[in-house]
Design brief:
Blueprint: H1 2-6, E1 7-8, E2 22-23, H2 33-49, H3 52-58, H4 63-78, E3 92-94, E4 97-98, H5 99-112, H6 117-132, H7 146-163, H8 167-170, H9 180-191, H10 199-216, H11 225-236, H12 247-253
Antiparallel strand pairs: 1-2, 3-4
Helix pairs in contact: 2-4, 4-6, 5-6, 5-7, 6-9, 7-10, 10-11
């Protein structure tokens, strides 16, 4: 019902595709009865879809929201409305769709093999272009809190570690998955390594992930040791290499330090 309030489209054979269509009323800046209804419905659908508790509870019942997200982001992009305020709140690309929560939701859908995973994959390819455009000082991830960036970074590490080999079981062919370059561009933007580059933000993200990762990571407390170790490894490395870092490659090649009963001087014990 919420999706139907947001768009006009033809009925599909499966609810996964119910978000395809056109935004009801057209340009949301026109403030007609139809566009006000559409914008409110879009916001509610996106907030529900990107809420991890709702998604975990409802599973594929939330599938129409993924196709709706693709429809909305494409429309807002084509009409130069992405992040437009007051339609969007801080950090949102379209109403209700914060960029960090969008990426984390898409990664979860892909890893879980959800019914809407193909739309999540398509969204990641769109986002690669979104984060690469010239935003000036109005980029949607500006002022994104360090804790949210660190939560995203921890989730991204888990995705990279577990995504390999899933393409054949989910999509049937590998080129439908977002490639490493797509993922790398998205990661670099949200953690402060690109568009714009801010090494102080990146360092704060690494530190937050290493220090508080047990509470921010994908897994329960006590089971996020590998991702925490990775970001601590980045903290100990030379920051000169961060700006041009191929994040997905570095994550895949990372070898966790062996456990010890006692940390050596200057080392962190996980």
């Amino acid at each position: 019902l919420v999706v139907a309030c947001a768009i006009q489209g033809r009925p599909s054979h499966t609810s996964t595709h119910d978000g395809n269509g056109t935004l009801r009323g057209g340009n949301p800046k026109m403030k007609s009865t139809a566009t006000l209804l559409s914008t409110a419905a879009l916001r509610r659908a996106m907030e529900l879809w990107t809420n991890p508790l709702v998604l975990a509870s409802c599973g594929d019942a939330m599938a129409p929201a993924a196709s709706l997200a693709v429809t909305a982001v494409q429309y807002y992009r084509d009409n130069n409305l992405l992040g437009e305020q007051p339609l969007c709140n801080a950090h949102e690309l379209v109403p209700g769709l914060a960029i960090d929560r969008l990426v984390m939701t898409c990664m979860k859908e892909i890893l879980d093999g959800a019914g809407s995973a193909s739309y999540s994959s398509k969204m990641m390819k769109i986002l690669k272009d979104v984060v690469g455009k010239d935003w000036g000082d109005k980029y949607p991830w500006r002022d994104l809190p360090i804790e949210r960036r660190a939560t995203f970074a921890m989730t991204f590490y888990d995705y990279v570690e577990n995504a390999d080999g899933r393409s054949s079981s989910i999509f049937g062919n590998s080129d439908e998955l977002p490639d490493d370059n797509d993922m790398n561009q998205i990661f670099r933007a949200i953690v402060g390594l690109q568009n714009p580059v801010d090494m102080a933000i990146a360092k704060s993200v690494w530190k937050k992930a290493a220090d508080d990762g047990e509470f921010l990571g994908v897994h329960g407390s006590g089971f996020n040791r590998r991702s925490r170790a990775f970001f601590d490894h980045l903290l100990q490395s030379e920051s000169d290499g961060w700006e041009h870092m191929d994040a997905t490659k570095v994550m895949k090649e990372f070898k966790e330090p062996p456990r010890t009963n006692k940390a050596r001087p200057g080392e962190r014990w996980y």
